TrEMBL record, chain A:
Protein name, as recorded: Origin recognition complex subunit 4
GO cellular component: cytoplasm; nuclear origin of replication recognition complex
Coiled coil: none
Domain AAA+ ATPase, residue spans: 59-220
Pfam families in alphabetical order: AAA_16, ORC4_C
UniProtKB keywords: ATP-binding, DNA replication, DNA-binding, Nucleotide-binding, Nucleus
UniProt keyword annotation of Glycosyltransferase present: no
Length: 434, 464
């Protein structure tokens, strides 16, 4: 028994790391919800009060939570629901219907889903019977029959609310808001959306039935708070099996966050975006570098991770092109310089390339037209060039007008990084007028 | 390789096996594996891997998932023309055939998620489940909600599932306009010349020594590397030119036999010479490789034909007519003239018609005729549309005999359109003043006009 105890407090490093990875991965990937919402207490309180009124007093409500992506809408809602369900009355009587605009793409599907989640009579197993009209009538009937005092409150949660506004006639939204407004069964409609102009999407009759209550989650995060958040995200909880390892880990995280280079990286991330998702992605990349042989996070890991995050995708793709394809891109760049904003076709590019070859009198790049066409098509496949109009069948390939999807600096930067780039090609790219 | 082998939670022998199969991709595979974490741990909801064609994206995923025996579904978006096929495949590979039969006839995403959740209650994931989508760029053309939903599938089904997207195109071109869950971006860089050499020399021919083979690869890369870095393409070329090399080596030995007779040296250690003398090998091989670039690389000559050509000693490579040589079309006499007239109408400016086609056109000022500002030739800009009247006018001028405008002439014009030698430009009106463009190349029209003894180059404004 005593042996077991000793083992518990002092796990081998491998198991500790496994444990660390499990805990932190779960936190970063599945967005586990914190016990206490930070910085959004006011919104949390507001929403909780609102839902409580529906549950306890039978008041019907509608509310929209509007915030940019990754700002914690779902987190807020989940926290509120968790707190709400701690009330005895809520736990007993509240019915929840979760809908997502991505999944329920039209009203018919949404209606079936509602019927299923409410376990109404026309559901056998999980099959729903009846046509759309029958379903709707049935559902409305069921909602209408109820009244404030006796029937159970229903909470409708519409994730990706803006997509519901694209349904035909907005029937579902109209009916939900209509029930919420009139004295029928008590329901609360909570919409989550990232569009600020979501009210403009609603029809007039739908809009007039909506309560116009909006909760905005606009981030007021300062840099200090951001660093603090990084630190809390990476720290291990109190109940970590190996106390000593946990303490050491937490200490190393604290020192890590104070490191100047890490701070610089974090500031850069903070300046690009404040949302939690991108922070989690960064931390995930850091975490993946922790292993048994390297059981602590070093500033170098954070630097590497941020380098991965900030890698320039187009530059990366340009790096892998062949010299012929690179030459074609340079020719296109020259064409763009000379004839500003004019589209080009393969013939013009080839002509420009030929001019370069004549000047250099270098037979090394003397390729046949079909070989050049193949390179050109490869560039099109990579979407580095794009046809001006998409009527592909009507016109010969070599006369199809194209536009270059790269800008000047991207090309020059790619040339700098290109491995073993021939000098004459580099010079050709630099000379503004060929 | 060390980073790959370190990952705990996996069988070490299996990791070793994986590492052996992933040549020159150790770093990427190691990073990927460390992101995936141990099997029972959560993985990031979606990972987006981009890189050039044949940079080992699918290969790495296949090998890792197969060898490490992780539950996975590999889906090619080319095959899944409708999303119901995709749902079926995913459910089938995770939960077996009963689950996929539960799907209704034309399932929506909602049905898929519902059934997935149901099945998940019965068989929750003990290991991370992976869905690998190959050619993910095609997802953009599918339903607008499919890609955002796949990216946050972990959240939607509340299971330990991770979606891995493989594509050639960078993530910037995928983002839907209202945004979505951002995946982790990973780049698979292109193989360097050394990497390519290493990979290609792996499958060396047992008949020849490794050095010989690797020097051959060197020569091949020397010719093709400037044009093509696609491993698959290069491997295809290696496969179809190396039979030639083998043969070349034999003939080469004959050559060098002559050579040695002349110089009276090296007669004894002749076998040694033929394997190590890369310079001579290069001299013999290089023209053939250059020819291969114009034939096999462009698929002008199919690889079977190429092999046959190698068998026949006399026939030079490329002597066989390729695909593009077959573009020669037999046309009726007047159709040829119609096509010639159409070409002239497409590539000449209308104001020069008087000068070219009128017999007694009087005096035309040369300065007027050759305008200075038209520097770019029409052969650079492509064909211009012309009305039917102009086509017929040029046609009558070009044909020496008197031709009646019969129905057959007009039907020949429309049959040229169906042959796609001409294209009709505007579809406003079928009968009244249709406009056409000529869609043939200069070589083609030269060949056609030669058969009717018409010198087209004399009549082309660009070549004056």
């Amino acid at each position: 028994m005593s042996k077991r105890k000793v083992k518990d407090s002092h796990l081998p490093v491998g198991e500790c790391i496994t444990e660390v990875q499990s805990i932190l991965r779960e936190r970063l990937c599945c967005n586990l919800h914190p016990d206490k919402p930070e910085e959004i207490e006011a919104q949390h309180k507001h929403l909780l009060e609102l839902l409580k009124r529906t549950v306890i007093h039978g008041e019907s409500n509608s509310v929209l939570i509007v915030a940019p992506r990754g700002a914690g809408k779902t987190m807020l809602l989940k926290c509120v629901l968790r707190d709400l369900l701690q009330e005895k009355e809520a736990e007993k009587s509240l019915l929840q219907v979760h809908l997502n605009g991505l999944l329920q793409t039209d009203d018919r599907i949404a209606l079936k889903e509602i019927t299923r989640q409410l376990h109404l009579e026309n559901v056998v197993g999980d099959k729903v019977f009846g046509s759309f009209a029958e379903n709707l009538a049935f559902l409305l009937e069921a909602l209408k029959k109820g009244d404030r005092s006796s029937s159970r409150p229903v909470l409708f949660i519409l994730d990706e609310f803006d997509l519901f506004a694209h349904h035909k006639n907005q029937t579902l939204l109209y009916n939900l808001f209509d029930v919420a407004q009139s004295a029928q069964a008590p329901i609360a409609v909570v919409g989550l959306t990232c569009r600020l102009d979501v009210l403009e999407l609603l029809e007039k009759r739908v809009k007039s039935r909506f309560s116009h209550r909006q909760i905005h989650l606009l981030s007021t995060l300062t840099f200090c708070q951001y660093v603090q958040r990084v630190q809390t995200q990476l720290s291990l909880p109190e109940n970590f099996p190996d106390k000593k390892f946990g303490q050491e880990w937490n200490k190393s995280i604290t020192t890590l966050c104070k490191d100047a280079s890490v701070e610089e990286v974090l500031r850069r991330h903070f300046n690009t975006s404040k949302d939690f998702r991108s922070m989690h992605a960064l931390l995930m990349l850091c975490l993946s570098r922790v292993s048994v042989s390297k059981p602590v996070l070093k500033p170098a890991d954070v630097l590497e991770a941020s380098k991965l995050r900030f890698a320039d995708a187009k530059g990366n793709m340009l790096h892998g092109l062949s010299i012929l394809e690179l030459c074609l891109i340079i020719a296109m760049k020259h064409l763009n310089d000379v004839y500003e904003d004019e589209p080009f076709n393969l013939q013009m590019v080839h002509n420009e390339f030929k001019k370069f070859l004549q000047r250099k009198s270098n037979s090394m790049y003397n390729f046949e037209q079909p070989v050049i066409m193949k390179a050109f098509e490869h560039l099109q496949q990579l979407e580095l060039i794009r046809p001006v109009d998409s009527s592909t069948a009507k016109i010969q390939k070599e006369y199809q007008l194209m536009r270059l999807m790269l800008n000047h600096s991207q090309i020059m930067e790619a040339l700098q990084k290109y491995p073993q780039c021939p000098t004459d090609v580099k010079q050709w790219a630099k000379s503004a007028f060929a | 390789m060390t980073s790959l082998l370190e990952q705990p939670g996996y069988d070490e022998e299996k990791l070793q096996m994986v590492a052996e199969q992933l040549l020159c991709r150790e770093d990427q595979a190691g990073l990927l594996l460390s992101l995936m974490g141990q099997p029972q741990q959560y993985c990031y909801p979606s990972i987006f891997i981009y890189g050039h064609q044949a940079s080992g994206k699918s290969h790495v995923m296949h090998v890792m998932l197969k060898e490490l025996e992780l539950p996975h579904a590999i889906i090619s978006c080319v095959e899944c023309v409708s999303s119901s096929l995709l749902f079926e495949l995913v459910l089938f590979s995770f939960f077996g055939s009963e689950a996929s039969s539960l799907l209704p006839r034309s399932p929506s995403l909602s049905d898929f998620v519902r059934i997935y959740r149901q099945q998940c209650l019965q068989a929750p994931a003990t290991q991370t489940r992976y869905i690998v989508m190959e050619k993910a760029e095609l997802l953009r053309d599918a339903d607008a909600n499919l890609l955002p939903a796949l990216l946050r599938l972990q959240e939607l089904v509340e299971d330990n599932v991770s979606v891995i997207l493989l594509s050639e195109i960078s993530w910037d071109k995928f983002r839907p306009n209202t945004g979505c869950f951002e995946p982790l971006l990973l780049h698979f860089p292109d193989y360097s010349k050394g990497d390519l050499h290493q990979i290609l020399s792996q499958d060396s021919h047992p008949k020849y020594s490794d050095d010989f083979y690797s020097s051959y690869i060197n020569i091949l890369l020397g010719v093709f590397y400037t044009v093509c870095r696609d491993l698959r393409e290069l491997r295809h070329l290696v496969r179809h030119t190396h039979t030639h090399t083998g043969r070349q080596r034999h003939t080469h030995s004959q050559h060098s036999e002559d050579f040695t007779q002349h110089t009276h040296t090296h007669t004894e250690d002749f076998t040694l010479l033929k394997e190590t003398d890369t310079h001579k090998l290069w001299r013999n091989i290089e023209p053939h490789l250059k020819k291969a670039m114009q034939t096999v690389y462009l698929r002008e000559v199919s690889s079977v034909q190429w092999e046959q050509m190698q068998q026949m000693e006399e026939k030079e490579a490329g002597a066989l007519r390729g695909l593009s040589a077959h573009t020669h079309v037999e046309l009726p006499y007047y159709s040829k003239f119609l096509l010639v007239a159409a070409y002239l109408a497409s590539y000449n400016p209308a104001r020069t018609d008087r000068r070219f086609f009128l017999k007694h056109h009087g005096k035309i000022k040369k300065t007027n005729f050759l305008k200075k500002n038209e520097k770019t030739s029409n052969h650079l800009l492509g064909p211009k549309p012309f009305p039917l009247d102009r086509l017929l006018a040029i046609f009558y001028s070009v044909v020496d005999s008197r031709v009646a405008p019969t129905a057959s002439i007009f039907s020949q014009i429309s049959s040229l359109v169906t042959l796609q030698l001409l294209t009709q430009v505007s579809h406003d009106d079928q009968l009244d003043a249709p406009k056409y463009k000529c869609a043939v190349s200069l070589d083609f029209i030269c060949a056609i006009s030669r058969t009717v003894n018409f010198e087209i180059v004399k009549y082309l404004y660009d070549f004056l």
